[in-house]
Amino acid sequence: MLAETPLLETTLERELATLAVGRRYGKVVEVVGTMLKVAGVQVSLGEVCELRQRDGTLLQRAEVVGFSRDLALLAPFGELIGLSRETRVIGLGRPLAVPVGPALLGRVLDGLGEPSDGQGAIAC
């Protein structure tokens, strides 16, 4: 049964690839400097994407900064270590956003709007 899993996964990926409506995921096909070229994902300019290993582990986030023919051009928010042709790209359907409200007062955030003061998530 375990030996059939890769075949099943390949078959499912092939079938899903035929569904062109609202595809929210794709794959890295090329890395040029710090720019990623991604195929198979329908995203919008400014949209945030997650870059994940094949097992689902989050590697990085990136922003859609352009298009070239049928490829989306992404600028990652951090290092490219660990990225490969197997890296999956998932469009989140939204731009980068920071929660705003009274709970934000006195908190320290990093450049991506994530808390870096050790006080946990911000509930705004």
Strand content: 35-45%
N-to-C SSE string, H for helix and E for strand: HEEEEEE
Radius of gyration: 17 Å
Structure annotation, total helices: 1
- The mean pLDDT is 87
User: Order of strands side by side in the largest beta sheet?
Assistant: 1-2-5-4-3-6
Architecture overview:
This protein has 124 residues and is mainly β. It has a domain at 23-95: Thrombin, subunit H (Beta Barrel), CATH 2.40.10. The protein is built from 1 helix and 6 strands; from the N terminus they run H-E-E-E-E-E-E. It has one helix at 5-17; strands spanning 25-32, 35-39, 47-52, 58-68, 71-76, 88-95. The chain has a 6-stranded antiparallel beta barrel with strand order 1-2-5-4-3-6. It is globular. 15% of the residues are buried. The model has no long low-confidence stretch (mean pLDDT 87). Keywords: ATP-binding, Nucleotide-binding, Transport. Residues 28-93 form the ATPase F1/V1/A1 complex alpha/beta subunit N-terminal domain. It comes from Xanthomonas perforans.
Detail the topology: elements first, then pairings.
Blueprint: H1 5-17, E1 25-32, E2 35-39, E3 47-52, E4 58-68, E5 71-76, E6 88-95
Features of this protein?
single chain; 124 residues; mainly beta; Thrombin, subunit H; 6-stranded antiparallel barrel; 10% helix
Describe the structure in brief.
Helix content is 10%, strand content 35%. With 124 residues, it is mainly β. The protein has a 6-stranded antiparallel beta barrel.
